[in-house]
Design a protein that fits this description.
2 copies of one chain form a homodimer.
Chain A: E1 7-14, H1 21-37, E2 42-44, H2 72-84, E3 87-97, E4 100-108, E5 114-119, H3 131-134, E6 144-146, E7 151-154, H4 163-171, E8 176-181, E9 184-186, H5 193-212, E10 215-220, E11 222-225, E12 228-231, E13 235-237, E14 243-246, E15 253-260, H6 262-270
Parallel strand pairs in A: 1-2, 2-3, 7-8, 8-10
Antiparallel strand pairs in A: 1-15, 3-4, 4-5, 6-7, 9-12, 10-13, 11-12, 13-14
Helix pairs in contact in A: 1-2, 4-5
Amino acid sequence: MSPKPRVVRAAAIQMRMHEDVGTNVKRCVEMVHKAADQGATLVVTPELFGSLYFCQREDAAFFDLAEPIPGPTTRTLAAAAKERGIALVGSLFERRAPGLFHNTSVVFDKTGEMVGKYRKMHIPDDPNYYEKFYFTPGDLGFQAFATSAAKVGTLVCWDQWYPEGARLTAMKGAEVLTYPTAIGAHAREPAGIPERQRDAWMTIQRAHAIANGVFVVVANRVGQEEEMRFWGSSFIAGPLGEILAQGSQDKEEVVVADLPMDDVDVVREGWPFFRDRRIDAYGEITRRWGE
Amino acid sequence: MSPKPRVVRAAAIQMRMHEDVGTNVKRCVEMVHKAADQGATLVVTPELFGSLYFCQREDAAFFDLAEPIPGPTTRTLAAAAKERGIALVGSLFERRAPGLFHNTSVVFDKTGEMVGKYRKMHIPDDPNYYEKFYFTPGDLGFQAFATSAAKVGTLVCWDQWYPEGARLTAMKGAEVLTYPTAIGAHAREPAGIPERQRDAWMTIQRAHAIANGVFVVVANRVGQEEEMRFWGSSFIAGPLGEILAQGSQDKEEVVVADLPMDDVDVVREGWPFFRDRRIDAYGEITRRWGE
C-alpha cells in the first residue's frame, strides 16, 4: 500500500511596484490572499516588493526604506501567513544597525511564526543594479527551513547565478529553492539581448533544480521603472528542470503549480548525483581562481 | 583599433559504434578528417569511441578493450592531430596497471603532442551504466590545457551533472569545456521520459556555460546498442548558454560551430559572476551532506 502522495501547491507572486510603500505592501498581501484562495500553501513574493527598485541609483535617502526585523512588513506578512494558514517567503530591505543593511528573505510558517531569515549572500553591482552600495553581503550562510508546506531553501536574485548557493542550500535539506527576484533589462537594450538574457536566467535556475533534485520557485517583478524593464516570467520548475508554471513577461499574476514532493526522492534515486560527488576533490571551490 | 577577433571553429564528432575496435577507430579518424575539411581546429570525439558501450553489463572480459597511454589509440589520434594541424580531444578506456582502469580524456595539440590527460572524476553506476565496475574514479583532479585552438577543459559524461566539476575546470582557465559522452535512454523507457531526460541533460550543460562564461562542446554517440538508445544531440553552446550548433538524435554527423572566443571576456564583464563568489562561505561544498 502506497502512502498518499504529498503534493504542495506553490505560488509565485508576480507584481508591479509603485512609489508608495504602503500601497505595495497592501497589494502584495492581496495577491498572497489570491494565491491562498487558489489553494496555495507555499507562497513566494518578489524581491524588495515594498518599493520601486531603488538600486538603479546610489542615493543615501533610500536607506529610509529599510526597516528592522521584526518590523511593520514582517508583522504584516506574519499576519497574512497565520490568517491563511500558509508558509510564506517574503523579501525586504533590512535595517540591522545604523549604516548596516541587508537584502533579506524571511520565512513564515502557517502559525505566523517567523521560522527563517536569510541575508542575500551574493550582491551584484552593475549599471542600474548598484546593490553593493546598499546591501552588506549576508553573514548567515546558506540555509533551509522546515515549514508546514515543505523544507524551504532561501536564496535571492543574484544568488541564482551561483551553483554553489543552490548546492549548499540543497545540502541543508531544502526541497524547494525560492528566489525572490528583481531582474529585467535596460529599456534601451538592443532587440534580442533581453531575450537571450532571460533564457539564460531560466536555464541556470532550471539547472539548479536538476543538479540538486529539488523544486525551484522564482518570483519576479514586472513593469518598467525608470530605465529598467522587469521581465516577469516568474516560474516554478520540477527536479528534472521541467517548467510546471510560468507567468507572462508583462502582467501581474499569481503563478501556481502543484509540486509532487515525492519527485525529490524519485528523481534523486534515478539520478543519484549526491552519491557520486567528489568531495575529496572540491576543496579549491573556496579559491578565488584556480591558476 | 580593435585587434582581429579570435574565432575558433569547433567540431563534435557524433558517431555510431560497431563491434570491431579497428573499425571504430578508423571511422572516428575519418570523421576527424571531415571536421578538419570543414575548417575545424578543435575537435572532440565521443566517449569511449573505440567500442560499443560495454558498461551495459559487468563482464571482466571487457577489460581486454583497455589500452595503455601511450598506446595504439593515442598514437592514432596524435597522428591525426598532427596531420591536420588541429587540437583534438579524444576518449579511451585506459589500462593503467593490472586491475586498474580509468575512463580517460586525452588532448593533442596541432603538433601531435599529447598536452593533456584527464581521468573521469565522477563515475556513474545505474542500470545499463555499470561504470563503477570498470573505472576507478580519476585522481588527476579538474584540469584545463592550453592548445593552439583554445584553453580546453576536459570533463567526461557523468561529470556533466556536476556544477562543481565545471566550475573548478573553468577556474583552471578553460575557455571551452569538452564533454565526450555516451548517454541515451533504455529502449523500453515510456514515451516522454527520454525527451525530459535529454532536455535536462542539455539544460544543465548550457547552465555550466552560463555560470562560468565559457563555451561547451558535447560529443555523444548515436544508435541502439543492446538495450540502450543513444540520443546523439551533440551540441556546442556559447557563454550565454545559447545553442550554436546541434546534431540530430539518430544520425552520424560532424557538428560544427564558430566560437567567438572574445565572448568569454564580453560575457564575463557583463555578468561578473566570478567577482562576487562567496569563497568565504563555500567550505561545506566538501561535505557529503549539509545537515
